[in-house]
Amino acid sequence: MQSSKFVTILLASSVMLFAIALISHPKEALDASIYGLNTWWDVVFPSLLPFFIIAEVLIGFGVVKFIGVLLEPFMRPLFHVPGVGGFVWSMGMASGNPAGAKFTVRLREENQITRLEAERLVAFTSCANPLFIFGAVAVGFFHNPELGIIFAISHYGANILVGLVMRFYGKTEKEKGEATKFSIIEAFNQMHETRIADKRPIGKLLGDAVISSINTLLMIGGFIILFSVVNRLLSIMNITDYLALCIQLLFKFLMIPIDLAIPFISGLFEMTIGSDLISTTTGVTLLQQSVVVSFLLAFGGFSIQAQVASILSKSDIRFLPFLFARFLQGIFAAVLTLFIWEPIYEKNLQGENLSQPTFFLLDQTQMTTIIDFFTQFGPMITIFSLVVYILIYAKRTSN
Which stretches are transmembrane (predicted)? Predict the structure, then answer.
C-alpha cells in the first residue's frame, strides 16, 4: 500500500513539474513540438502508412496465414514462434518501429499466436528501418554512407541474437505447437479458409485497414511530439546534466568518453535526437560514436517504447519482456559493432581498400533521393490520407 502511494506521489509530482516547465518555457516547448510534428508529418506518417494498410489487407486475405505455414519449419525451431512471425519480422524491418508491435498485436487478435509466442515475437521484431539507418543516421548525421553497413549488420544481427535468446523465454509454461512440414498445398488451404472466415467485403476491409492504420499513426505522432518536448525541457532544466553524472561513471568503467554521456541521455528519450548529437560530439573517435549510436538504435528510446506499450496495452501481451529485450539488443548491437569494426569497416570500407566506391556513392544518392521525396511530398501524402480517413469515419458514423 505504501509503495502504491509512493508511485502515485512520484507520478503526480513528475506531471506537475512537467506542466510548470511547459508554462515557464513556452517558446522552447513550441519549437520542440514543431520539430516533432515535422518529423511525423514529413517522414513517419507517409513512410509507415502504406506498410500498415498493406499488412492489414494481407492479414484479411489470408496471405499472412499462407506465409506462416511456409515459414513454420524455419521460425519454430529457431525462435520458437509460428511461421507467421516471419511476416511480422520482415514487415518490421521494412517499415521500422513500432510496426513489429502493431502486427504482433494484430496476429494475437486473430488468435494466430499465443501470448507467450507474441511476447517472444515482439521482442526481436523491433528494429529501425534501413531508410532511417542509412539515410538519416549514416548519411544525414555522420555524412558517411559506409557507416550504414556497420549499423545495419550490428542492428539486425542483434535482432537475431535476441530472438535466439528469447526462444527460451516462458519455456517452463506448457505450450502447444510443433514445427510442421513445408507444404504449399496446406498453405493455400489455410489461406483460403482464413479469407472465407473473414466475411467483410473488400470495401469494408480496405476502410478498416485505413482507419486502423491512421489511428495508430496519430498515436505515434502524439508520442513523437510529447517526447520531443520532454527531451528539450529536461535539457533546459539541466536535469539531463544530472542524469549524465550517473552515466559518466558507467562510461568511465567501459572506457567510453564522458563527453558522450549527455547525448546518450538525450538518445535514451528520443534516439533520433541522441544520434544527431553524438555525430556532432568532438574529441571522440568514430568507433566510440558508432558503438553508442548502435546501442541507441537497438534500444529504441523511451519514445518508441511508449508507443509500443500503448499498442500492447490493447492486448494481453506483457511489456516487461519487450523492455528487457531492448536492453539486451542494445548490448548485443554495441558488442557486434566492436567486433566487426576492424574487419569490415577499417579493412574493407575505409581508406585505399574501397573495392566498391561506385556502389556506396550510388547508395548515398538513392538515400538522398528518397529523403528528398518524403520531404517534398510527405506532407501532401499525409493531408490526403487524413482527408480519406475523415471521409470514411464520417460515413461510418452517419450509418
Answer: 48-71, 78-101, 121-142, 149-169, 209-230, 242-266, 286-312, 319-341, 373-394
